[in-house]
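Marked as duplicate of an earlier ticket. Keeping the data here for the record.
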Amino acid sequence: MDTQNDKLLIEVDEIKKMMDLLSSLFSIRTSLIYNNIDTEEYTNEIAGNNGDYQDYCKLVQQELKHKCIACDRDKFKEANAKKKPVLYQCYNGLYEMFLPLFIENSLAGYLHFGQVRSEKDFRAILTECSLYEHTQVDKLEETYNSMNVISKDKLILISELFQKFADIILKNKLIELRKAKPEYYLKKYVEENLAKPIDVETAAAFISRSPSYVTHNFKEKYNMSFHQYLTQMRVDLSKTLLKNKSITEVFELCGFKNRYHFSKVFKKIVGITPYEYKKDLENKKNTPQ
């Protein structure tokens, strides 16, 4: 599944698997953050399976959330300016890391892990972070002490592993800048989803446009209707697959409703049925050169 905002296309499922893996391995909160860092609503993210906030964090934020937000925003900006990971102790005394992801010198988002307790005693954290302003210090101490401890040396190793995952994300284009016109992404959507139900409505939703926009602009750009292009792509794919797969396998892989529908559409475009086309392929293969 893809998602997108005004500037990005993101392979959500693949990145979610990565965040789940890292989260499970180290029992920490992990996420990809990809929205506007200049607002307080910086929770537009793909989180790992330990995505909920620690009880300690929830308790701190009940009264001091504004200080947590200010601290995190400063570290967002520091990581952005340095163009490298920033591992730091946040306002409530836990360790966090933000690793900026740049595509063609444009900031695409941050890989993040956090809410990790260090070896420090709570009383040291209380003083360093001025948590004595909180009205439930005893409860803070209880929840802090219940958290698992990860050493600073291990956190540095985890940071290095996150850098490897960042390289994979960028190399495999699991995040892309949205630079091309919507028609480009319509074609990309079709080409990558031929086996799935596709129509003008789902395509329009993918590029955040109206169905009428898809209908008119696609034909103007490519001199064929969206439906014609979709059908042609499915038939082209089926011709390739028929070399090695059965007709039943092929119509399912190419998004046709059933074998009859596949045969009817294929013959209209190619001039012969899939069975005849496959037979011709086999005859050519068996004919001595």
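See parent ticket for discussion. The chain has a mean pLDDT of 86.
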